[in-house]
């Protein structure tokens, strides 16, 4: 029997078996075949190294020396000896071109955004195992800790949803809510765009297992990516209120509280 262990590194997905042999490596431009055993913390560094400082990785042989600058990078995943990945979602600054919203809209060169930058603007993130979410202890704990007693599921893809086009259009209109927006991706993927403190869009790529909380009052929007499919769990404290307030909302109480919170945590906010 094969036990799959999935590692993520800079957006690469490495599926390994219980003996850490590589089964599959996706989203890399080069393929990567290695059958060596992992010998503890650090082996991923020996195998995978970034090809540039923007966090792209190339794939090296086990004999490849560790580049010095690697320690300065913020990897998507740090692999511990116990195989407990410390996850971060892939996030980047976008170009403002009018191309299809479902495209990644990377800048040239790519500009990735670290988890700590997301945390600075109040975005929370967990990576959970989405397979048995009904009996997941991790999910249960988060829901208990944060009072998320309401839950429903939302599937988005053409043909499955009533008023699909209309819904998608509204999701992509920049808005805020009076409450947190809590989404847990069970299948598929999509982009949450959030404004940073300088009013610049950050695109956060949510994939299965990713759970994200956007604070009340943050300007944001959502789009499917080119996979055109996402299954999301929506969580809420108490009776859900999905009301969206489209920008501008500078006088909305939730917006004002949000700006105050940013300022009091030392994040300088650009006047809008
Ligand atoms: C499809 S969930 C994300 C869309 C959104 O921002 C919302 O529902 O308010
Ligand atoms: Fe929203
Ligand atoms: Ni690769």
TrEMBL record:
It is a peripheral membrane protein. Its cofactor is Fe(2+); Ni(2+). It comes from the Eukaryota. One of its GO terms (molecular function) is iron ion binding. Fe(2+) binds at residues 175, 177, 181, 220. It is an enzyme of class 1 (oxidoreductase). This is Acireductone dioxygenase. It is found in: Cell membrane; Cytoplasm; Nucleus. It comes from Musa acuminata subsp. malaccensis (Wild banana). Its EC number is 1.13.11.54, 1.13.11.53. Catalyzes 2 different reactions between oxygen and the acireductone 1,2-dihydroxy-3-keto-5-methylthiopentene (DHK-MTPene) depending upon the metal bound in the active site. Fe-containing acireductone dioxygenase (Fe-ARD) produces formate and 2-keto-4-methylthiobutyrate (KMTB), the alpha-ketoacid precursor of methionine in the methionine recycle pathway. Ni-containing acireductone dioxygenase (Ni-ARD) produces methylthiopropionate, carbon monoxide and formate, and does not lie on the methionine recycle pathway. Binds either 1 Fe or Ni cation per monomer. Iron-binding promotes an acireductone dioxygenase reaction producing 2-keto-4-methylthiobutyrate, while nickel-binding promotes an acireductone dioxygenase reaction producing 3-(methylsulfanyl)propanoate. Pathway: Amino-acid biosynthesis; L-methionine biosynthesis via salvage pathway; L-methionine from S-methyl-5-thio-alpha-D-ribose 1-phosphate: step 5/6. GO terms for biological process: L-methionine salvage from methylthioadenosine; methionine metabolic process. Belongs to the acireductone dioxygenase (ARD) family. Transmembrane segments: none annotated. It catalyses: 1,2-dihydroxy-5-(methylsulfanyl)pent-1-en-3-one + O2 = 4-methylsulfanyl-2-oxobutanoate + formate + 2 H(+); 1,2-dihydroxy-5-(methylsulfanyl)pent-1-en-3-one + O2 = 3-(methylsulfanyl)propanoate + CO + formate + 2 H(+). Ni(2+) binds at residues 175, 177, 181, 220. One of its GO terms (cellular component) is plasma membrane. Keywords: Amino-acid biosynthesis, Cytoplasm, Dioxygenase, Iron, Metal-binding, Methionine biosynthesis, Nickel, Nucleus, Oxidoreductase.
